Amino acid sequence: MKRLLILFTLFLAFSVQSQQLIPLDEKPYLDSLQNILGSNGPIKAKANTNFLLSNYYRNIDSVVSKKYLESGKTFIKNDPFLSAKYDFYEAQYDLDRNKAKAAVSYQKAIKALSKFKNEESDLLQAAAWYSYGVTQKDKEGYPFLVKTILEKSIPLAKKYENSKSLGFLYTQLAVILMYNAEFKKSEEYNTKALKILEKYYPNSPELFFNYLNLSNNFCYEAKSTEAKKFLDKAETLISPYPNSSVNAFYYYSKTLYYITTQRNSEAVSVIDKGISYAKRFNQSLLAQMFYFNKYDILRKLKRYNEAKGVLEDILTEKSLALDHNNRKTIYKQLSSLHEEMGNTKEALAWEQKYSKLNDSLNTENVKLEINKIESKYNAAEKERKIATLNAEKNQKELEVNKKNSYLWGLSLILLLVVSLLIFLYIIFRKNKKISEQKINDIRQKEELSLTKAILEGEERERERIARDLHDGLGGMLAGVKINFSTWSASHLDPENNQEFYKILGQLDNSVGELRHVARNLMPESLLNFGLETALSDLCEFYNRKDIEIDFQAINIEKNLPLNIQLNIYRIAQELLANAIKHAEATNILLQCSQSEKDFFITIEDNGKGFKNNKEQNTKSMGLLNLKNRVDYLKGSMEINSDHQGTTINIELNIDGE
């Protein structure tokens, strides 16, 4: 059962389904969507169809999914509801690629959808809240996801008591509870979903997955009779559709049932069927999970070489082994399998790989286990040597006994010396790591202090120069201009003294340019109205006939400390200047969003791009200043650039200094 729960951790990724489940009979569904695209139907229908196709392909073919998403965007025009749906499906596309970006898009979609009071809007908001909770799971944990479903998603779906979405949400909540070993509560929510889905949506994919979840839950409770009842119901739904991609999930649940009932030989053929479906539909991670089950069964059947081959194939294919914890589990299984086969040398090698990976993940030391296997290996070697000596020197028993005693004593001393050296080496490495970490921390603090002093000094000097220019030189020039204007009005004729008025105009332009310089040095709108207004003014300033800048602000708080607002403003200023001056972009998107103590900046442009390498970043003063400000706010920066444009993603920590 413990092994099944380990595998279920992996299977949860598949159980947490997208809100838009595909009908079990997939081909007619896809054909109908393609027919809509090929017809002369309404623009809204084509937009929605593109969004649904993007969602269908998002885990199958990312290129095709992105193509349909952008195609749907072209039909939005000035429709705010379609624009909100685009934000939702863009988040769906990013969900497994960039959770931080997806989270921002989900919140943007929720905010836009909340302005519409209809069923489709409410159910999309419910889906967006649920998926937002999924994006925060790794950071906030399962309690946050459960709270989001119960307090945000389900209340929206409950407005429509018998909706398919409500049944889906009950099922997903049941999956999370099952994963956390809350089997009784899981059964309660699965039953709630069952009452809705069986009565109103008898042939839906939501009901199919509800049956599978109930079967799985009963398997983990070792209630095979109840599990079989719901597995049979799922089979009745899926059997008419042998070409459906969800067949792989059915065979996975069937495998779990056979393992629970200890029908290992039958489970092997079921696994092979599941693998064929998973490979057919590019479900690589699910295929590897089938292989892991196959390994476990072959080991129970004592078909050790086949079991070993399956595990080695899992490592070669890498889908399951990409996760360090999964790879660590596989190393451990290979070690114990070789030990069971009597291959102590290979068992030691795999145990050492496991130990090395375990250390890198800061888990408990497995030195005792390694020593145990190592002792077995050394004992086997010693016994072989003793047997050889006895065979060669049968007539010298006394001498052999003395030599054996000597060898045993020497081996014990050597073992103690090796153990002591290993122990001292581990202590040395640990102390070295701690010392290096302390040195790095001190160096990082010094660099941050220096950066802070430079940036704060720079801002103070900017403020002083801006004040001197605006209040001192600006006031003097403005006074001169007023005096000239007053004097010329009574002493000069505009037609006969055009040269003088031309000079007067140049003086006026100089005053305006001086005020523009002063504003760049210290933006007044930032001091008076806050960061969001200042950023909006900055984008308006850079807007021209040949340059379009789209600024999007999401949840920016007004009570941020001034020094943090100034640094964010300078970062945005540098990003916009680079996009316009160096990239020669004509279309720029600047998005700034805040999630509690995290601040995200994303800028995308259609400029000529640049080569993103360390040498250029070192030489570029603009990128160096940008990096200093990002480091000052303990942030990170990711740059993606090619000939089609540049995208820069920045994440900042604004939790004080």
UniProtKB/TrEMBL annotation:
Q: Which residues form a coiled coil?
A: 363-399
- Tell me where in this chain the Histidine kinase domain is found: 464-656
EC class, as a word, reads: transferase
Catalyzed chemical reaction(s): ATP + protein L-histidine = ADP + protein N-phospho-L-histidine
Q: Name one GO molecular function term.
A: ATP binding
Key words of the record: ATP-binding, Coiled coil, Kinase, Membrane, Nucleotide-binding, Phosphoprotein, Signal, Transferase, Transmembrane, Transmembrane helix, Two-component regulatory system
Could you say which residues form the signal peptide?
1-18
**Enzyme Commission numbers on file:** 2.7.13.3
Provide the protein name.
Answer: histidine kinase
Write the lineage as a comma-separated list.
Bacteria, Pseudomonadati, Bacteroidota, Flavobacteriia, Flavobacteriales
